[in-house]
Known about the structure:
Blueprint: E1 11-15, H1 31-42, E2 46-49, H2 61-75, E3 81-85, H3 91-103, E4 108-112, H4 122-133, E5 141-145, H5 147-150, H6 156-160, H7 163-166, E6 170-175, H8 180-188, E7 195-198, H9 204-210, E8 214-217, H10 220-235, H11 239-256, H12 263-274, H13 290-303
Parallel strand pairs: 1-2, 1-8, 2-3, 3-4, 4-5, 5-6, 6-7, 7-8
Protein name: N-acetylneuraminate lyase
Organism: Xyrichtys novacula (Pearly razorfish)
Keywords: Carbohydrate metabolism, Cytoplasm, Lyase, Schiff base
Amino acid sequence: MAAVADKKLTGLVAATFTPLTPQGEVNLSQIGPYIDYLTQKQGVKNIFVNGTAGESMSFTVAERKMLAEEWCKKAKGIMDHVIVHVGCLSLKDSQELARHAAEIKADAIAIMAPFFLRPKNVAALRKFLQEVASAAPSMPFYYYHIPRITNVNLPVVDLLEDIENDIPSFSGVKFSASDAMDLGLCINNSKPQWTVLFGVDEELLSGLAMGAQGAIGSTYNYLGCHINKLLAAFEKNNLAEARRIQYNLQELLRYAKKYGFDLGVNKQLMVELSGLPLGPPRPPVIQCPPENAQSIVQKFHSLFSESS
């Protein structure tokens, strides 16, 4: 991680996959090459680890600590930000991971809502977040809003109201939902030091138009160089070019959905495009057959050439 303690998190963030051996065990040896690929080939210098794409809930607390520590160790001096997702169904486990993230000098922590016994209202959600944040009070803290996974779809704008009084380290939201009204209200009611990062890759341009300051997504692992061009085009008010890149991403995902585009397909697509041996997903997610991934790769190359 670079010396950017006071640097606001903006731009593109790759939600990383977790490298596994063919037998499904954690493979730390691939994290260094993975970081090199992101920085050198994709131009991505921020990562969100142990999240949804990283299959966090399929790993033990000990495995997640091991992974977080290796990501931070290998990213030091190379990446600008390493955000560690510490969400668990257990408050105590989340607190343990938050403390550990502070110990290994991650740049920030994030947490999704617990989704087995769910918070029934904003007050309950805020209390849970406050308890986790208090375990690492010096760590910038992000709420990870992903209702399609958690089925916790409380208005984020209501959560943000005076949240800095309960969580002084609160730094922003990873907003992975298609509710443009709630997104807009979050951005409109954010403090200047907060960052709202949009998390729906295929709708990124709409999030930018609403005022999102950056994006976190799994497709940015292998599409980062192209999506950086989308961000640059948007900044220059070249909407035609930004739309072209967004449409191409949408066409790719439309095609991939024919093969049931899920984590297994997405991870295998990363393997095929990057050449990194990241292994299979962990059950219950099923590994994508290589021939299906190859078909998607061909579609990828028809949409995204080296010069596009």
